[in-house]
Design a protein that fits this description.
Elements (H helix, E strand, L loop, with lengths): L2 H8 L6 H7 L12 H22 L5 H12 L1 H10 L10 H5 L6 H18 L2 H11 L1 H5 L10 H11 L6 E8 L6 E8 L4 E7 L2 H15 L3
Antiparallel strand pairs: 1-2, 2-3
Length: about 220
């Protein structure tokens, strides 16, 4: 990606385009000059900027609520969505193996590259300009934030519902896994015997499958 394209997509103009190139270089393409160090820095900058924003926006929220709100914004899936919105995957330098396996579409690679880009902008400018760019990129996610109480994940909501009624907690069991090692799909069953609930969910990780199964259970309870 050249600086002109980046400016068109993000509104930021690089003075040191080599920083942008490094941010978009995956380790499969270059082991010595890749974006891993930038990713490390970008992760901290992202957390600081998002934390500062929601701290001032949600003045009545406690630490637990603020943590949930932040987690909904800085998780890999959200970062990958933001990266897709600016077609970042098309510009990431990948090795042959990653190219063949569709690495430019993989959420983990996209989210890591976005964090590296955030660090590159910070090193090329300052905190304020990085903050302005980041809030532009996350505009739709920030505008659609739900109330803090609704940001609890499905497993937590189901657990709290059962605990309040002194019902035994759900039992989550893996029913099957499919796909290759780098692209597995998990199917997990969520069972609450006392309520005769039994629902299965699928996902690219056991955690995601458990969340989907819990979500189906909540829907069955009209929650």
């Amino acid at each position: 990606m050249n600086p002109e394209n980046f400016f068109a997509l993000t509104g930021y103009s690089f003075k040191q385009p080599e920083l942008l190139e490094q941010a978009l270089t995956h380790r499969s393409y270059s082991r010595s000059a890749n974006n891993e160090r930038l990713e490390f820095l970008g992760d901290s900058i992202l957390n600081l900027i998002i934390s500062n924003h929601i701290y001032h926006r949600f003045g009545d929220s406690d630490e637990g609520d603020l943590s949930r709100i932040r987690a909904s914004l800085v998780k890999a899936d959200t970062l990958a969505d933001v990266a897709r919105n600016i077609n970042l995957g098309e510009f990431i330098h990948l090795g042959g193996g990653e190219l063949k396996s569709g690495g430019h579409r993989r959420s983990s690679i996209l989210s890591d590259a976005l964090e590296a880009v955030i660090a590159a902008v910070y090193l090329d400018s300052d905190y304020r300009k990085t903050e302005a760019m980041l809030l532009r990129l996350f505009q739709s996610q920030l505008e659609s934030l739900s109330a803090a109480a609704n940001l609890k994940d499905s497993k937590t909501r189901l657990q709290e519902y059962l605990q309040a009624r002194q019902i035994d907690l759900p039992d989550y069991k893996i029913e099957k896994t499919s796909g290759k090692s780098h692209d597995q799909v998990f199917t997990v069953c969520c069972e609450v015997p006392d309520l005769e609930l039994r629902h299965s969910g699928t996902g690219s990780s056991r955690k995601k499958a458990e969340q989907q199964a819990a979500k189906k259970s909540l829907k069955a309870l009209d929650l």
